Amino acid sequence: MTTSRLLEIRLRNQQLSTKNFSSAGEVVEWMGAVQAQDFLGALWSLGMRLPATAESEVEKAVADKTIVRSWPMRGTLHFTSPKDLRWMLKYLATKVQSKVNSVFRREGLDSKQFAKAMKLWEKALTGGNALTREEMYDVLEKGKLSAKGIRGLLMLGVAAQEGLLCFGARKGKQQTLVLLDEWIPKKEPDRSKEEALKRLAEIYVRSHGPVLIEDLAWWSGLNKTEATAAIHSIKEQLVSEKCNDKTYWFFPEASPGKPRPMCGLLPTYDEFGIAYKDRNPIIHKTDLKQVGGFFTSGIMHNGKITGVWRRELEKEKVVIEIKPFAKYSAAQKKAVTSTIKAYSKFVGLKPEYKL
Q1: What proportions of the chain, in percent to the nearest 5, are helix, strand and coil?
Q2: What would you measure as the largest C-alpha separation in the chain, in angstroms?
Q3: What are the residues facing 318 on neighbouring strands?
Q4: Using CA atoms, how far apart are residues 164 and 179, in angstroms rounded to an integer?
Q5: Are strands 317-324 and 304-313 parallel, antiparallel or unpaired?
Q6: Which domains does the chain have, with CATH numbers?
Q7: How many Cα atoms are found within 13 Å in the side-chain-facing hemisphere of 10?
Q8: Is 120 helix (H, G, I), strand (E, B) or coil?
């Protein structure tokens, strides 16, 4: 398999070159988890994977509870489907806690303080209440529990990983937190670890493939042994091919179709870049050094990162700065112009840019 072929399949599976869904909830359920600590960027991640839609329509999925934002894995925020969140929390989220025990100790946090914080928050939120992060910290301070520095954020993360909290709808421009069991009442039966890891492999390979076993380990936080077992649990359904002497796994395509030209302004932390340990297929090492890491928003042409972009939201316009790694051809400029217009329409502002 060539790198070009690998990227063609990923673009389709990631719903970037082919859009098979009409709602944010459907996209998130397909993707399994969409990294979302950059809230507005995550909304655009979903918007790119839908037919022409507006930012407000994507965010409405949060208020409608068809997607939910929490800390399911890797110690960072993601959008997930309500039906998948609890088993992800159980088998993936708490893996992070043992890795940050030294941080907890440094901040003077122990199991008693985490338990006290969760008790205070459960009381404050019961009855359908939604509080901003600062209001959550005020609850701690009034309960004689310091939220200074990063202590409050650490306690929020643990409370969410333990299944007490998740994010609700925004209050103005402020994110709010709610009780998970009130916001998303439990309907799904419990899964065994074996069932959960099989489901995880199915979701990830289906939506992100072709992938390496190391990619699944990175994306989920599983160790290499667990990731290997997860892939092997669905091995009979998959095909594997070598690319640059590495073994990639993916589901066979029913109707591959012809490659379609694809350009996108990827937001920071978009799944097309962040979800793989090995990013060599999408960006040259010298370009990666130039941008200083893989978290930077990338301009993507046919699966390859060809530059970076940034945006500044103003009252009536969005100012977009384009920085290509090399001078764009006329065709590339045309493609970038098209995706700029799509993004500006998504946020409902006039675009200002220079190519």
Answers
A1: 45, 20, 35
A2: 63
A3: 313, 351
A4: 6
A5: antiparallel
A6: 15-183 (1.10.10.10), 283-353 (no CATH)
A7: 26
A8: helix
pLDDT > 90 fraction of the chain, expressed in percent and rounded: 86
How far is residue 250's CA from residue 173's CA, in Å, rounded to a whole number? Answer: 40
DSSP string, 3-32: HHHHHHHHHHHTTSSS---SSHHHHHHHHS
Q: How confident is the model at residue 289 (pLDDT cuts 50, 70, 90)?
A: confident
Nearest to 55, CA basis, from 37, 69, 41 = 41
**173, two tokens:** 């421009």
156-199 pLDDT per residue, tens: 999 999 999 999 999 988 999 999 999 999 988 999 999 999 99
Give CA angle at 41 (36, 42), nearest 5°: 40
- Neighbouring residues of 172: CB distance < 8 A, sequence distance ≥ 6: none
343 with 267: CB under 8 angstroms? Answer: no
Distance, in Å, from the CA atom of 14 to the CA atom of 28, rounded to the nearest integer, reads: 11
Helices (H), 20-126: 24-31, 39-48, 55-63, 82-91, 101-106, 111-125
